[in-house]
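Exercise 3.2. Students should predict the tertiary structure of the chain below and write it as structure tokens, then compare their answer with the key that follows.

Predict this chain's 3D structure.
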Amino acid sequence: MSTLTSALLTALALAASPAPGAISVPLHVGGPDPACWRCHEAKLGKELAKKSVHAPFRGGPGCTACHQPHQPGAKSAPVAQGADLCRRCHQDEGFTRAHVHSIIEGDGCTACHAPHASDQPKLLTEAPEALCGTCHPDLAPKHGGLPVEGKHCLGCHTPHSSASKALLRQVVHEPVSDCSSCHAPKPGAPFARSAQPPALCAGCHDGLDKELSGKSVHPPVRDGDCTSCHSPHAARQPRLLVEARPALCLGCHPDLEEKQKAKVVHQPVRRGACADCHRPHASPEPKLLSAGEQALCQRCHPQVLRWTSMRSSHDPVRSGSCTSCHDAHGGPNPRLLVKTGEKLCAECHDVQAEEAKKPSGGHPPVSGGECATCHQPHGAEWDSLLRERPERLCLQCHQDLEDKLADVKRHNPFAGGQCIACHGAHGQGDHLVRPGDPCARCHASAEARWGRGASRHKPVAERRCAACHEPHGTAIPRLLRKEPGALCLGCHEPLAKKIAAAKVVHPPVEGGECLACHDAHAGEGARLLPRRLQDACADCHDLAARAFTVRHAPATSHGLTCVTCHDPHAAAAPHLFLEAGVALCDRCHDRHQAGWRRIHDAVGAAGSPCSECHQDHRKSDH
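Answer key:
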């Protein structure tokens, strides 16, 4: 940006917010002051059509910014004389340095600039390459005999003021005083260089050759186009840069200009401080980075080092690949993330899509893409980047479960805060229960014993422990969901109806003590019973007593079991008999056999009840 452009911008700023002692310049575009225009339109009307129009003249009552009001026919006087008039608006450093262009103090600003409008940039009265020549027609003697053209004047000189003699710009290339340091004129090529860049530049800049051997070399440096960034003679910017950063960098990297306009911008990018992260010429690191990615980020983010030494550290953090997740320049997402949280994590972790497919929707933070609800993105003191100790973390959402079970017997893993003993955080089965048989982790020996049983409870065989047990806690012993009787009959509904309609109910059944006869998990015999049915009955009935052995001798001699005659749960007949009267006898005595028919026909008892002639087995003298 030239000094004059800077001056005009200063004028605009002063117009918007007048400084003490400065004139306020209206900048709206409604046209010149109508009061002035009535008389001056004929002479000045064509000026408004020119390419460059003085701001006070272009809009509003701006004429009085420079002119004193006057009566028709009278000559207008300026509000100040000479350069002082222009300095009322153009007050920046470019106009006030120690060495001022002599023509400004002599003929004033209008020696080079038109006061109202011009077809040349910056209100110049002539094209820039011709304007300097009007006062400096022969430049060669002062430039080592080289035929310097006027169009190059501003490459070394500032047009208004300078801290150096000859109006040289702030930064001057050291060899400028001796043109032969770089130039070797020859016929037809007066500005021929003694060597081509980058070799020419490397003659003085010793480290350049070494930089060129770096892993990453800036294309202008590699191609020897040093002057694409540096002025060879003089410049306003440090290091002879042709423009200030970031404008210089954006000339080749227009995509980064869009990044500067993004919703979230990296602070160095916002400040235009490209060199905070990048080297201008070459680097051993990719993308001209001034250090390895992790070390570079640590300069402003020292916590990165702490993250890498934590108990759990995210792989991109540990490997120093910060840009795996963050855009180094700018973007639409918070914290410069390259994608929104859920999409970003899904780039490496596919659990989210699988979780969303579950009928119940899966773990809400996972299916909803809210990974940061449970995980730290960089490093954590707990495994798997968890934000908190697992039990505390789960209770942040499930505190109601803790409150509900505060006063009852709780499952040991839940009581100990070991939620992950049974549950996985994502990608698992219903209720996030771990795949396979999570109960076996603690109950392996019991499961092995049950596996050897002749019969297994169906929920046990199907590994559905939660069908009977509350996995977190309950007031009922053994973590049962209901009292044993009600729990069993909840699945065995036909039996429940039979018991409800029966006249006689087995006392353990009536008391809901199913486990008095049955094992809840597996039995050595059928139907979750002991290997010998009599062993189950013997817990309540003394099978060795004489009264019992005499009464049941016929059944014992024929190898019958208790359930041959008795229903173990409920019946309509007394003593839980399966049948009443003759029908009970028929279960053992086949009345259709020829021998039975012959004997009973002979005495006329074929159709009579058995008890007319026989005592039942309960009679001790039978």
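Discussion points: Residues 1-29 have pLDDT under 50 and may be disordered. The two ends are 128 Å apart (CA to CA).
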